[in-house]
Design a protein that fits this description.
The chain is of the alpha+beta class. Helix content is 48%, strand content 18%. It has helices at residues 2-31, 34-40, 89-103, 126-139, 145-148, 156-166, 204-214, 223-232, 246-278, and strands spanning 43-44, 57-59, 65-67, 77-82, 114-119, 151-152, 168-169, 171-174, 177-179, 183-187, 193-198, 233-236, 241-244. The strands form five sheets. The protein has a five-stranded mixed beta sheet with strand order 6-5-4-10-11, with helices on both faces.
Amino acid sequence: MESQASKIWAVRIVQWLALLWLVLSGGQAKAHDPQDLMLEKVGVEEHLGAGIPLDLTFTDQQGRAVRLGDYVKAMPVLLTLNYYGCPTLCPLVFRNMVQTLKGMKDLSLGRDFRIVTVSINPNESLALAQDKSRTTYGMLEGAAPEKNWPFLMGEHLAIERLTRSVGVRYARIATAEFAHPNVIIIVTPQGKISRYLYGIEQQPNDLRLALIEASDGRIGRSQLLNRALLYCFHYDPIGKKYVLVASRIMTGTMTALFAALVILLVSLWKKESKSRKKS
């Protein structure tokens, strides 16, 4: 009986070891899956304050050679990195961007900022670029969108220089498909990276504040209002959005009340002084 019990325990131990090996080997195979390893390369390393290479040459949706620096001047730029053969996310990003622009009533494309979209596919099709730009322009309001939102294509070295400068990592997952982060890079009129906004959809307030911040408050209809907005809101690097700073609002309110009280007291003092002189 003791011999039989030993055999049973030996069989169970072997079964447990086999099960453990299957679990470990299965996890190891998953961890080394080529698709998972490729997706691990995708991401963003923020380079705030760094300059982008304005000397890079690309081709626009009309087939003309253009210089990146021609678009980055006088006003901030929203830089997006997509590819025009993307079947789902990129078209959604373009549609959402148009809706966000419509929600920013006080800022206008072409007057206050530009958008530059660059394809990360070095084998990009001019026909696809024209199709995506035509579709996007059809949703926009205002004149000459092709001057203020170009859809650019470039060679591999130019694309790599640009993506490295902004810290965006992407990977080819098929012949004409790429995995890439959904991020908008806000660039100042001087070509410096000011802010990164993440996601396939941006809130109008976040985009407005990022543009105002990049321009140092010099765009829009009221620079005084811009200063007030930048004072009351600050970018939360954890939540990846702009949040209202209650302490600053309280400080501003108390300062305004104190200033009003001082003005009132000075006014009363002057009236009292005049009345004394008359008497």
